[in-house]
Amino acid sequence: MFRKFLLFTLLAGITGLFAFRTDPFAGDRPFPINSLVAQFFIDGERDLPSSPLETTVAEADSVAGLRVMMLNAFAYDSAYATKVQRLIQRRMPSSAFTQFDEGSADDLSTALQGLEAVVIAYPAGGVAEQVRAFGKVLNQFVKQGGVVIMTGTHEFSALQQLDLFDLDYGYYCKERSIGQTQPEHPLFQGVGAEFSAEVYQYPLDISDPGFVTLADVRGYPFMGYKSLGTGKVIYLGLEYYFDEPQSARLLTNALRWAAKPRVKRSEVVLYAGKGYQKPNAFDLKIYPNPYVSKATLDIEITKPTSLAVEMTDELGRVVSVLLPRRNLSTGLYRLELPNLDPGIYLVQCISSEGTEVRKVVKAAEN
User: Fold this and answer.
1) What is the pLDDT of residues 25-54, one digit of tens each?
2) What is the pLDDT of residue 49?
3) Backbone phi, then psi, for 236, in 5-degree steps?
4) Structural contact between residues 143 and 230, judged by C-beta atoms closer than 8 angstroms
5) What are phi and psi of 149, to 5 degrees?
6) The CATH number of 269-362 is which of 3.40.30.10, 2.60.40.2550, 2.60.40.1120, 3.30.540.10?
7) Any idea what DSSP says for residue 80?
8) I need a labelling partner for 231 at 20 to 30 A (CA). Which of 9, 11, 78, 150 fits?
9) Phi first, then psi: what are they for 6, rounded to 5°?
């Protein structure tokens, strides 16, 4: 019996060692805390309590009623996914959660209807063909405005199979010193420039030119995102087996930032012989788009409403308030867009009926 145990331990150790390159993180532990080997040797670390300095309270949700799916079909294990869900719920109590534990790609597509975000806690394992099929469904979900957040994993092949961004290799390490390439980004709100990770990080070799790095370890990104269509894919290469305050805030910040409704999906109501009606109280037009120096925003109000109009960059930062909130009667209102730096911007019209968003491109002057 003892020999069988030794043989099993040896095989497990070899598997864990070959899952990673030894360079550039050769000085780190030879296995991550969530690996098979860790179950035998460092299981006590899994029982670490939350920081004694932490008081977990529900924070004011900037995204009320967010609908989130925990995609557990190929997560590390159900217990880990449950911990991540509870971590989010404690801070965002108004959010609603569903779980997808098994099913086909068609089942996943159906289950995603009406949701804003998907969280994959420690993606690992799964049948490669099925994971690829799930990746195609998630790709469409993101392009239509959804958000997919993946946490750190030692099985980077699962990320490759999802194919939501291109990566060559994955590592892991436990190192407090990290680099923030965009410390002003909304993901770091309340975290501060002195953020240091108390948990394992899982940096990647990323070859995708569309991936935006937000934080790295020794030059390898472990936090960042990629825009697809009107949605985003976010990678938070951190471990969430226990509730560490700063890493937990990064996760909820990511949901609040990326899953904030950009476009209200207007329902089209059909009436026999009457065509269709939009439930919105106004209609928007921007021209020209793209524009070089000047552009015009036409807002046609179809019924009295309270309205505010602002312009933000892709990070959600307000760059111009075009119209402070006012009570407007029916009619046509015309506003001029400012001459900003070249880039992609979002014009948000916020009314009592909801929010309408239009993307506008500011081109460089010749």
Assistant:
1) 655 544 444 544 344 444 444 444 444 334
2) 40
3) -115, 95
4) yes
5) -115, 125
6) 2.60.40.2550
7) H
8) 78
9) -60, -40
